[in-house]
Amino acid sequence: MSIFFIITELKVKHEGHVPVYNHTLATILVEYASAVYMSDLTELFSWTCSRCNGMTKGFEIIELIVDVQHCLQAFIGVARDLNAIVIAFRGTQEHSIQNWVEDLFWKQLDLNYPGMPDAMVHHGFYNAYHNTTIRPGVLYAVKRAKELYGDIGIMVTGHSMGGAMASFCALDLKVNHESQNVQVMTFGQPRIGNAAFASYFSRLVPNTIRITNEHDIVPHLPPYYPYFSQKTYHHFPREVWLYNVELGSLVYTVEKVCDSSGEDSSCCRSVTGNSISDHLVYYGIELEADTWSKCGIVMDPRVVEYGATDLKGNFALYKDPTALTLKLNTQTDFGSIPA
C-alpha cells in the first residue's frame, strides 16, 4: 500500500498573528527531533550518526547536554541552510513508554508560572527544563552561537516530553533573554499548562506549530475537560493534525491546519487517542530511542575530554564549529556555565 504526503490547509477565522505551517520545514525538524534520541554520543556529537544524514546533513553541533541524573538529553547547533540555531530535546527514555503514558493520566496542574497571573503548569515538565543542567547548558550554547554567527533566528523542537521542554525553553528565551526570533515546532507533545498559560504562550511565542499524528495518545494527555476550561490542561495553538485518507488502494496523508483555539475539536480531538505506534513515527521518521536500555548511552572515552562534568555525573560536550578540530573545554562544574 502506497502512502503520499499532500498539503491540505483549511481556512479558519483568526485574530492576530497566525503561524504559517511549512511542510518542508516540518520534515527537516522532525529529523532533528529524531537524532536527539541517539544513544551513541560520539556519533551524535560528531554528527555522523545514522539519523544525522538526510535533510540535516551539514548541521554544526555546538553543544550536547546529557543530564544523567534526570535522564535528559539535548543538543544545540547551527543549521546553515535554515540560517538558524536549532535546539532539540529528547523525549521520554522510560524503559516502558506505556508506564509513562499511564502516568500522564494523573498529572495535575500544581505550579504557578512565574510572572503570569492565573497561569498554571505541571511541575514535572517545567522542572525538566528549568531545574536541571539542561537550561544553563542551552543558554550558554545559544550565547556562544550568537557570538559566532550573529543574531540569527532560533528554532526549538522536540518530540513527546521533548516537545514540552522545547516549549518551556522557547518561552524562557523570549521572556527572560529577549530573543526576538524564536520559532517552535514540536511533535506529539502533551499538554503542559492551563488555558491562561496557553493564552500567554500564544501571545509571547506566536510562531509555534504543534504537529499531531492520527490517533497518537500523547497529545490527548493530560486529559482536557472542556467544562472546566480554566482549571484543566489546555493546548496552545497552532496544531497541525496528520491523518490518513484512503482512496481505493492508496492512502493519502492529509495535513490539516487547525484553528487558533489550541483545542480544535475537528483535529486530533475528533478521534480517540489510543495509539502508541502513532506516537512513535511522524512523517515516516522514527521518534524513539535506538536502545531499550533506560537512559543508556555509548561514548568513546576520549570524547569526554571535550566537555564538562559535574559532581552528579551530568555532562556537556562542547565544540567550536569554526575550528578544524574539537576545542577542549576545561570547565569541571556546571556552576561555571552562565545562566
What's the helical proportion of residues?
10-25%
How far apart the termini lie comes to 51 Å
Q: How is the biggest beta sheet arranged?
A: 11 strands, mixed
User: What is the CATH first-level class name?
Assistant: Alpha Beta
The CATH superfamily turns out to be Alpha/Beta hydrolase fold, catalytic domain
Question: How is the largest sheet built, in terms of strand order?
Answer: 1-11-10-9-8-7-4-3-2-15-14
Radius of gyration from the CA trace?
19 Å
* Number of E-state strands: 15
Commentary on this structure:
With 339 residues, the chain is of the alpha/beta class. It has helices at 23-35, 41-45, 97-104, 123-130, 134-149, 161-176, 195-204, 277-280, and strands at residues 2-8, 60-67, 72-79, 84-89, 111-112, 120-121, 153-159, 182-187, 208-213, 239-247, 250-257, 281-282, 285-286, 307-309, 315-318. It has an eleven-stranded mixed β-sheet with strand order 1-11-10-9-8-7-4-3-2-15-14, sandwiched between helices. The radius of gyration is 19 Å and the shape is globular. It starts with a strand and ends in a 21-residue tail after the last strand. Residues 86-223 form the Fungal lipase-type domain. One of its GO terms (biological process) is lipid metabolic process. It comes from Tetracentron sinense (Spur-leaf). This is Fungal lipase-type domain-containing protein.
Concise summary:
The protein has helices spanning 23-35, 41-45, 97-104, 123-130, 134-149, 161-176, 195-204, 277-280, and strands at residues 2-8, 60-67, 72-79, 84-89, 111-112, 120-121, 153-159, 182-187, 208-213, 239-247, 250-257, 281-282, 285-286, 307-309, 315-318. The chain is α/β, with parallel strands linked by helices and 339 residues long.
